[in-house]
Amino acid sequence: MDWSFGLTMTAAGMAVTFITLYLLTLLIRLLNKLFPFKNEEEKKSKT
Predict the structure, then answer these.
(1) pLDDT one-digit tens code per residue, 6-33
(2) pTM of the entire predicted model
(3) How far, in whole angstroms, is CA 17 from its chain's centroid?
(4) How far apart are CA 21 and CA 42, in angstroms?
């Protein structure tokens, strides 16, 4: 194997990692919008 293959695999691995993190961020933001966090104080004041 030569250096170009190693560098290509390194770049491809980093790209896939960043794409996966971006998609997870989008999923977490979507879940936060669907199920917003409610504080204990807000729950007590409503009841």
Answers:
(1) 999 999 999 999 999 999 999 999 999 9
(2) 0.68
(3) 10
(4) 32
Q: Is the pLDDT of residue 47 over 90?
A: no
Q: DSSP states of 1-47 as a string?
A: --HHHHHHHHHHHHHHHHHHHHHHHHHHHHHHHHS----HHHHHHH-
Which residues touch 19 (CB under 8 Å, ≥6 apart)?
A: none
**Tokens standing for residue 2:** 């030569």
Sign, Cα dihedral of 35, 41, 43, 46? negative
Taking only the tens place, the pLDDT of each residue in 32-45 is 999 988 887 766 76
Q: Which long-range contacts (CB under 8 A, 24 or more apart) does 31-37 make?
A: none
